[in-house]
Amino acid sequence: xxxxIGVKALAVAVIAGSIQTAVADDLTLCWxxxxxANALVxxxxxxxxxxxxxxxxxxxxxxxxxxxxxxxxxSGGGLCDLMIGDSQWIGGAAENGHYIKLNDFFAKxxxxxxxxIPATVTGYSEWPKGTPNYWALPAxxxxxxxxxxxxxxxxxxxxxEYKAKYGRDLNVPKDLDELxxxxxxxxxxTIDGKTVYGAAIYTERGSEGITMGVTNALYNYxxxxxxxxxxxxxxxxxxxxKAAAGLEYYKELYDTATPPGxxxxxxxxxxxxxxxxxxxxxxxxxxxxxxxxxxxxxxxGKSGYFPNPPGPGGHFAQLGGQGISVVAASDKRDAxxxxxxxxxxxxxxxxxxxxxGYSALKAVVEDPGFVSxxxxxxxxxxxxxxxxxxxxxxxxADLLLPMQERIHDYVIAGKGTAQxxxxxxxxxxxxxxxxxxKL
Amino acid sequence: MLQAFIDKLVQKTPPxxxxxxxxxxxxxxxxxxxxxxxxxxxxxxxxxxxWTIYLSFTNYRVNRPNRDVKWVDLRNYERILTDxxxxxxxxxxxxxxxxxxxxxxxLGFTLAFLINKKFKGNDxxxxxxxxxxxLSPAVVGNFWTFLYQPQIGLFNYMISFFSGADPSxxxxxxxxxxxxxxxxxxxxxxxxPFVMLICLAGLRSIPDSIxxxxxxxxxxxxxxxxxxxxxxxxxxxxxxxxxxxxENFKMFDLVVQLTGGGPGSLTTLSSIDLKREAFEKxxxxxxxxxAVILFVTxxxxxxxxxxxxxxxxxx
Lengths: 439, 315
Description:
The structure holds 2 protein chains of 2 kinds. Chain A has helices spanning 2-23, 35-51, 62-74, 90-95, 103-109, 118-125, 150-153, 156-166, 176-186, 209-221, 241-257, 267-275, 289-294, 333-343, 346-354, 362-365, 377-384, 396-411, 418-435; strands spanning 26-32, 54-60, 82-86, 137-149, 189-191, 194-200, 279-285, 303-307, 317-326, 387-388. Chain A is an alpha/beta fold. In chain A, helix 10 (209-221) crosses helix 18 (396-411) and helix 18 runs antiparallel to helix 19 (418-435). Chain B is mainly alpha-helical. Chain B folds into 2 domains: 16-55, no CATH class; 78-314, MetI-like (MetI-like fold), CATH 1.10.3720.10. Classes of the chains: A alpha/beta, B mainly alpha.
C-alpha cells in the first residue's frame, strides 16, 4: 500500500516537475543601459520568484540604444521577448508589426489604460495617437526638467549680487528668460575657488540629444509640429517666427551660459558636469534625480528641481520615457504577457517608484504621500502635466536626423540663421512625409 | 604514427572513389581545389556587391518589409549627386584625407629617417612610437575627448603652457574652425607610426653599397638624400599613402567617438553620413546608391594610384 502511494506521489511529483519545466521560460527584456534598468533587474527578481520564469536582460548604452534595438526589431531577431522601447518608436513598431497589440490582453486581464497618467498612455502606448490602440504598457515616465544648486542659490552674497543686477531674488526661474539670466549670472563665476559655469544643456549631435534639448525652448516659444487643424501641414508652424525666436534663445543660452567644450553633451555629460560642481543648472531627464539626491557632492538637500519654465508661447516640456511591449518575433509571448500583467500591479508599481523607477500608474503618483516621498516627486508630477513629444511616426528616425543636423548646424556651428535652419527643416520633413505618403 | 594512419586511410578508400579522383585532369583538380574559395568569395563579396547595385535602383527600405519595392531608375543617384549636404560631407572627407596623409607622410618619413640611425635605445623608442597604432580607434577617440576637454584636458593645458592662452578659452571639438583639425591631429597621432614603419622598411632595403659609391663620387649628404634615399623609398611611401588613403576614406569609429560628426555637420565624413542614411534613416535603396558611388570613387582613385605606383617601381 505504502509502496503504491509512494509511486503515485513520485509520479505526481514528476508530472508536476515536468509541467513546471514546461511553463518556465527564459525571458529576455531589452532596454537602455542606465540606472532605472538596474532597479528593474532587482524588481524582476520578485517576478522570477512568483512565476518561475527566468529573466535575462539586454541593456544597451543610450547613444547606441536605438541603433541596436531597431536593428533587432527590423531584422525580426529573437533576442528580445520584452522591449522597453523609446516612445518615438511606437508608430513604426505598430505599423511594421514589431510589437503585438495589447488591447485584447488588457481587456482580458482588467488592465485599464485610464489608470495611467494620460500623457504616458498617449506617448508610450497609443498608435495612431489619440486612438485606443495600445502597443505598450507605460513603464517608465520621464520628462526633461531642471536641477539646480540650491546651496549656491542660497548664498547671501550671491543673492545680493543677483538682486542688484536683475532686480529680483535668485530663485527658481519663473520663465525661460529668468533661466537664461541665472545661467549667465553663474557663467565663469568663481565659487569656492573654482570657476563654474551656468548650465549644462543638451547639445549632442550623434543620436537625439540636441533635439531633446532644443524642443524645451521651441515648444515654449510657439513651435508646433504641424497645423493643429491640418495634420502634416508644416509651413508656418515648424518655421514660424516664434519658433525661430525659440531657436535663437537656445543658441544664446549655449553661447553665453554653458561650459566651454560642451558642444556634444547629452545625459551622461550633463550629469558629470553637475555632480563635479562645474555648473549651477543642468537640463536632464527626470530619471537622474534619484542619483542626484544620493550623490555625496550635490545630494542631500544641496540640489533642487523645477519643471522646464514657460516661455512667451506656452508651457511645455519634452517627454521622455518608455512603454513596455511584447516583441512580435518572440516565441514566448505568453510568458512575456505574464510579465506585463505582473508589472501593472499597484504593489509592483509602488515598489518600482521606491526603487528609482518612475511609475506612470495614477494610483501611485496620486497617492497623498507621493509628493512628499522624494524632493523631486512634485517636480516630476508637475512636469508630466506639461509634456509634449517628438514625432512618433514610423519615419521618426528620418524626421529626427535632419532636425539633429539643422539644429546642431545653427546652435553649435553657427551656420546661417535660426529662420534658415527651420525653413530647411520644413523642406527636409516635407520630403520625408512625401516619401511616407503622408503628403 | 601519422604516416601509418594515412596508409591505412588509403587502403580503406574504396577503389571506385580513388579511381574517380585519380581520373581527374590537372585542370579539373585545380578547379576542385579553388571552387570552395570561389564560392565563398561569391557569397560574401560578389553577391552583396551585385545585390547592392540592384538595390541602388529601387526605393527599398529594410524597415518597411510590407511596402512595395519600386524600380526608380537613376533617381537615387541623381538625388545624391545634387545634394549639397552630401557634397559638404565629401569636402569634409577630402579635407580629412589630404591633411592626414600629408602630415603622416612628412612626420612618418622624418621619424623613420631619424630612427634608422644607429643609437642606444633605438628598439625601445621604435616600440614606444608604434604603440598608438596598436590601440582600438574607438578607445583612442574616447580618450582624446578627455584630452581635448577645455577644463581638464591635457592637450589644452599643453597649448596653454606654450602659448599662455587660457586652456578653457578654446574647445578643439566644439569650435567650427578647430574641430576639423582635432580629428586630423588624432588620426595623425595614431597612424604616423604605421607610415614610419613602412618607410623604415624602405630605408633599410637600400644597400649600403649605393651610399658608399656616392661617397666615392663625393656626393653631398643632401644630394644623396634626394637622389638615393627619396627615390628608393618612394614606392614604399606610395604604398603607405595607398593604405592610409583607403583606410581614411572609410574612417568612422574614431571620428564618431570624438565629435559625433559635429559641430553641426562639419566633421561628418562620408562613411558616417552613409551609416546614418542606411541604418538610422533606413533608406536602403538610397544608401546603396551612396555606397556604390563611394565604392566607384575609391576603386577608381585606387586604380589610377596603383598604376602610378607601378610606374614608380619600374623606374
